């Protein structure tokens, strides 16, 4: 993957609004029996979607792949819990998978192989990942790096007259 050129910083306030916008769409295609958050990026959106849809059964699939901006090979550290897999009839039927974004689509492909009939939602999508996701809110270009609120903080900017950076 070429190094990302553009930055797309997302504040907590913006992310919360985008997760509620995602939920408006998901409310049209539900109801869902349970949510599966793809950790760690899917944890915050899953919490917001669960509250808005009134879903109380929440599972995780733990996948590691990126070391900051470089994606290594995917490692599934934890699969779907047996109870939730049973709820989905073993193929994910009526289950909602939530992640923060799809980039190359590799994570989406792995998760879909686990639960082919589940509904896969992400807040943001890049062109390469779009074909993997059923519902998303905002598309960003492939060479954009999204900075999530849990990865960032506001920082002091020195005054311009003192030769700001
Ligand atoms: O479509 P892909 O190219 O697979 O990229 C998308 C995935 O990458 C990030 O997770 P990451 O693997 O960095 O782990 P994290 O969620 O714990 O940060 C992001 O949260 C998605 O899950
Ligand atoms: N924070 C962040 N993680 C990613 N993992 C894959 N793509 C991205 C991205 O654009 N931003
Ligand atoms: Mg992730």
From TrEMBL:
Sites where the protein binds 5-phospho-alpha-D-ribose 1-diphosphate: 40-41, 99-107
EC number: 2.4.2.22
Domain Phosphoribosyltransferase: 11-156
Predominant place of localization: membrane
Keyword Transferase in annotation: yes
Gene Ontology MF term list: guanine phosphoribosyltransferase activity; hypoxanthine phosphoribosyltransferase activity; magnesium ion binding; xanthine phosphoribosyltransferase activity
Key words, A-Z: Cell membrane, Glycosyltransferase, Magnesium, Membrane, Metal-binding, Purine salvage, Transferase
Residues annotated to bind guanine: 103, 146
Enzymatic class: transferase
Originating organism: Bradyrhizobium valentinum
Coiled coil: none
Record family assignment: Belongs to the purine/pyrimidine phosphoribosyltransferase family. XGPT subfamily.
Cofactors that this protein relies on: Mg(2+)
Compartment(s) where it occurs, according to its Swiss-Prot or TrEMBL record: Cell membrane
Membrane protein topology class: Peripheral membrane protein
Pathway assigned in UniProt: Purine metabolism; XMP biosynthesis via salvage pathway; XMP from xanthine: step 1/1; Purine metabolism; GMP biosynthesis via salvage pathway; GMP from guanine: step 1/1
Residues the entry annotates as binding xanthine: 103, 146
Cellular component GO terms held in the UniProt record: plasma membrane
Name the UniProt record assigns to this protein: Xanthine-guanine phosphoribosyltransferase
One Pfam family from the record: Pribosyltran
Binding site for GMP: 103-107, 145-146
Catalytic activity: GMP + diphosphate = guanine + 5-phospho-alpha-D-ribose 1-diphosphate; XMP + diphosphate = xanthine + 5-phospho-alpha-D-ribose 1-diphosphate; IMP + diphosphate = hypoxanthine + 5-phospho-alpha-D-ribose 1-diphosphate
Domain of life: Bacteria
Subunit organization: Homotetramer.
Function, in words: Purine salvage pathway enzyme that catalyzes the transfer of the ribosyl-5-phosphate group from 5-phospho-alpha-D-ribose 1-diphosphate (PRPP) to the N9 position of the 6-oxopurines guanine and xanthine to form the corresponding ribonucleotides GMP (guanosine 5'-monophosphate) and XMP (xanthosine 5'-monophosphate), with the release of PPi. To a lesser extent, also acts on hypoxanthine.
Binding-site positions, Mg(2+): 100
